[in-house]
Task: inverse folding
């Protein structure tokens, strides 16, 4: 079976590579000539564990090909996945410019039956717009070519995308015809031989499922952050509260970890888009609006703690920031809490020294030389007035606290991911505060 993937970003490249790994011949298409040439040379545009080796292997086996010309492969493929970006506009609405550009090109050059599958996260009703756009282009040519539209939203976690794709807990597919269903069943069967878990539904429901899933996960995070903030005020321990409610089978333990806010390319964008879709239908998503408000406020929690500790006198302070990516195992800094924190620190007159295992190059492009980058966690804390932990990378979990205590100018640690034991650090002479687990307020000496 031959397929095409349009868009070689995070979703497109992972999708194409994993299909190729299972024996499918895949054309990965992108308008970015530099990216395509780099991929042919083995240069991967994103960081994702295991992806680089898999791309190399399948490219060498000629199951994975890279091209800038969609029209050259349309006659060879049976299924085409559209995995181009849908960035949010200023009003929160998903920008479908790239999605419809792909549809127009398909309509201009297709000559035989094709199943067009939307992999990008798109609002409900997008499939109809794609269908209309393709038909308009076919009409201009005076051509009559059959095609189907399907929706196959992705549920990949950055940092675990290959595992998620190769062993999915479910595959959601929206189809309109039996032929489309048969093609998608055939394509996904190798991934699900042990437990066939493709959930077929209508296209609008599939489009909505992606947004609903991300909105629910974002809601759980913001809910726990709200609870954590209240725990600090009343003297409760959010870690105990989390265990207490997580053991309820109706609630479960996933996504109940408080912190300094969620980020990334999905949750913020999808929550905004769903709110916007509701407004277009004269409906208010009150819960999701609160989710977004809580998250934006939570991104400032470490800065507020630092400001309170030093009683607003941050000018001239040197602050170490451990972690820049929005989560571990990725270099993605889109909507990352670290960016909000660093901006606030710089505005307050702080010198910021940051370290991240993989995201510093990406962060440097965004921060444009305003931050000093360290080679490791120890260099980051030399003569600092505080250490702020923003991303829970594994290498941050068991550092040499003896070395860090000697290197820091002042032993203040603000943990935005609750990865340390308060009693242990206090016994080692640190002043420690995390999210929702402190029954007392820390004060500057």
Result:
């Amino acid at each position: 079976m031959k397929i095409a993937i349009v868009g070689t970003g995070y979703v497109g490249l992972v999708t194409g590579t994993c299909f190729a790994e299972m024996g499918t011949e895949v054309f990965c298409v992108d308008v970015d000539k530099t990216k395509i040439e780099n991929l042919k040379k083995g240069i991967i545009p994103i960081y994702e564990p295991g992806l680089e080796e898999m791309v190399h292997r399948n490219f060498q086996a000629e199951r994975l090909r890279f091209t800038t010309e969609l029209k050259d492969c349309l006659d060879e493929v049976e299924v085409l996945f559209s995995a181009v970006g849908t960035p949010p506009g200023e009003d929160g609405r998903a920008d479908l410019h790239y999605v419809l550009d792909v549809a127009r090109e398909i309509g201009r050059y297709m000559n035989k039956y094709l199943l067009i599958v939307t992999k990008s996260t798109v609002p409900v009703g997008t499939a109809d717009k794609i269908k209309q756009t393709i038909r308009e282009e076919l009409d201009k040519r005076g051509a009559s070519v059959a095609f189907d539209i399907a929706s196959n939203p992705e549920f990949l976690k950055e940092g675990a995308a290959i595992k998620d794709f190769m062993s999915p807990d479910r595959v959601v597919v929206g189809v309109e015809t039996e032929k489309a269903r048969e093609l998608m069943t055939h394509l996904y069967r190798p991934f699900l031989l042990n437990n066939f878990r493709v959930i077929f539904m209508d296209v609008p429901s599939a489009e909505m499922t992606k947004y609903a899933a991300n909105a629910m996960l974002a809601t759980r995070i913001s809910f726990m952050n709200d609870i954590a903030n209240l725990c600090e005020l009343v003297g409760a321990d959010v870690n105990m509260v989390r265990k207490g409610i997580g053991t309820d089978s109706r609630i479960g333990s996933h996504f109940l970890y408080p912190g300094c806010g969620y980020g990334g390319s999905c949750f913020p964008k999808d929550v905004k888009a769903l709110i916007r879709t509701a407004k277009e239908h004269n409906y208010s998503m009150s819960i999701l609006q609160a989710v977004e408000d809580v998250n934006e406020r939570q991104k400032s929690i470490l800065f507020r703690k630092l400001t309170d500790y030093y009683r607003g006198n941050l000018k001239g302070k040197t602050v170490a920031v451990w972690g820049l990516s929005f989560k571990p195992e990725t270099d993605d800094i889109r909507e990352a809490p670290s960016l909000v924190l660093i901006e606030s620190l710089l505005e307050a007159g702080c010198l910021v020294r940051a370290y991240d295992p993989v995201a510093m190059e990406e962060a440097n492009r965004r921060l444009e030389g305003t931050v000093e980058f360290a080679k490791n966690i120890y260099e980051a804390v030399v003569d600092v007035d505080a250490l702020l932990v923003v991303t829970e990378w594994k290498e941050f979990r068991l550092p040499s606290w003896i070395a860090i205590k000697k290197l820091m100018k002042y032993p203040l640690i603000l943990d935005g991911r609750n990865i340390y034991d308060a009693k242990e650090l206090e016994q080692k002479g640190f002043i420690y505060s995390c999210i929702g687990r402190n029954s007392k307020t820390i004060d500057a000496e």
The two ends are 69 Å apart (CA to CA). The CA atoms of residues 314 and 348 lie 6 Å apart. Residues 203-234 form the longest helix (32 residues). DSSP finds 17 helices and 14 strands in the chain.
